[in-house]
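pasting for ref
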Amino acid sequence: MIIKSFTFNPFSTNCHIVLSGEELIVIDPSCESESEQQHLIDWINEQNAQLTRVLLTHAHIDHIFGCARLSEEFGVGIEVHASESVLLERAEVQSQMFGMQLTPPPAPIRFIEPGETITFGSVSLEVRHTPGHSPGSVSFVDHASKVVYSGDVLFAGSIGRTDLWEGSLPILMQSIFQQLMPLGDDFRVLSGHGPETTVGRERTSNPFLVGHAPIG
């Protein structure tokens, strides 16, 4: 298995690609500009593998810029939690709020269900519902490789913001303590922004977590 991460757009949003055998998936196609989108497409085309899935941790604008382009280029639909549908449908409104433009993403081909297992190549990803930053935020857990793709739930030294639509600090803290912390200290955390970290590092040094317990 190979994990390749790119950082795109003015929000410095991470896009993670997971390659296994002859298949690869994209988690959060954050590529905004034509050059970013072409760079991602070129990298994918250089691999001896087929893009089979585009998964979204959530549907805030900075995570979905490249959905339309990847769907058009590779004929692959997007998959997201059903609670993010409103954000997807209002993608253009989201972009206008920040003075930006984007091609509206296609409707999801399916909705991700918490607790399901997404498989490709030799990789299995468990879907965990981790709301708080947005209502349908999910994290993808690769137990075999001890990696979690946490979206904007947990960062190195920080946590996701909760002042956006349907954000909630108590719910976010519950998601972190109930869904991510139990994974184990040696789990790598690949988030939506910033550098890679580990569950153990955040448990012991993240100022938002140390000495705190879930709220509510």
